[in-house]
Amino acid sequence: MQAFPNTFSSYRLGNLTLKNRIVMAPLTRQSAEDDGTPTDEMTAYYARRARGGVAMIISEGTYEEDALGCIAYLNQPGIANEKHIAGWRRTVDAVHACDVPIILQLMHGGRVSDPRCLFAGEAPVSASDTQSPGWVLYTDSDQEKYDRQVVGHWPKVTFPPARALSREEIFRIADGFAEGAARGMQAGFDGVEIHAANGYLLYQFVDPKQNLRSDEFGGSPENNIRFAKLVCERVREAIGPGKLITLRLSQDGVDDFGGAWPDGVRYAEALGRALADAQVDALHWSSFDWTDNRDPNSADPMPTVLRRASGKPVIVNGGIAEGPHAEQVITSGAGDLCAVGRPLFAHPDWPYIIRAGEPYNWIPFDRKYVIKPPYDYSCGYPLDLKRSVWPADLNLRRRHPEG
């Protein structure tokens, strides 16, 4: 008898027929060129996981345009120009050669954009005039410095105050997502994921603690999600009905790992109802543990709530490390697909391993597998970890090309 029959059943999502229910989650690595061009190393990384048995891959967060503080972190990949398109096309072709679809996650950093990615004199943008209390990920770790071969001072980089976007800028950013999505289709992607989770710009609108607006983009769950819905609508217009669109949501972010919505499940229900008519094929719930809703008044998992309220398929992420965990997502009705992240860094064959049904001695997660994970050497060899110059001077900003 096959282990985990529900996990390894096929599923129809939009116009895609997926061979099983396991999706590779978007995983930040910061391994693009300094100008955002995807590298051969990235091609070898994604191809290795496509070869390992996942049904679909969601790319790491990618910036769609170099405007209004969109770039979130150093060496983030972009889809903002022809060079980016050509770089991503190599990765897409390598993944497709394994008969696996891949969608492009598009994001805007908002108030948690690394200040070194901003132009001189430029402030980050957000839903409201706020400032993140956090700091740029991994800038406080000696181990990360060693693994990335960074030489010199290793600063703890905090975020500057952000300014509220104008209504006109909101529509401009939505158009930027659509333009980036269209370029993604030129690269051959099977669809896009809109990133409205984990602390980034669209999340800053969804989160009622950060969104203090009183216009149509704030003040209620329906208004808070309006920007994300607008982005999905513009993207659908740009890529047409045949390509996949997913929307990623979460309660927490990179600067608030324990975050929770003030109204908990009630807030999630309101968001789900508002998303029932959204131009998306699925919602994607992101968390550290999908069973923990952080709501003392309800035991319902958030993905279950969103699936019920929206009527949309749901991809569930968080705490899925073994075969039984994936099976529970499907059999409990919490979701239709499982997004697996950390296990795939060190174990690109994770789907095949759990399908065997045999006990396995997993390698504990460690950041070093993020920085240099197993690669498919048929796509890029020899491989050397790119040595980037990450400036220690926090006052150093990029110079605008117009001077």
UniProtKB/TrEMBL annotation:
Report which superkingdom the organism of origin falls in: Bacteria
Q: Which SUPFAM superfamilies match?
A: FMN-linked oxidoreductases
Q: Which UniProt keywords apply?
A: Flavoprotein, FMN, NADP, Oxidoreductase
Q: Which cofactor does it need?
A: FMN
Q: Name one Pfam family in it.
A: Oxidored_FMN
Q: NADH:flavin oxidoreductase/NADH oxidase N-terminal domain: which residues?
A: 8-358
The protein in question is named: NADH:flavin oxidoreductase/NADH oxidase N-terminal domain-containing protein
What organism does the record attribute this protein to? Marinibaculum pumilum
User: What is this organism's lineage?
Assistant: Bacteria, Pseudomonadati, Pseudomonadota, Alphaproteobacteria, Rhodospirillales
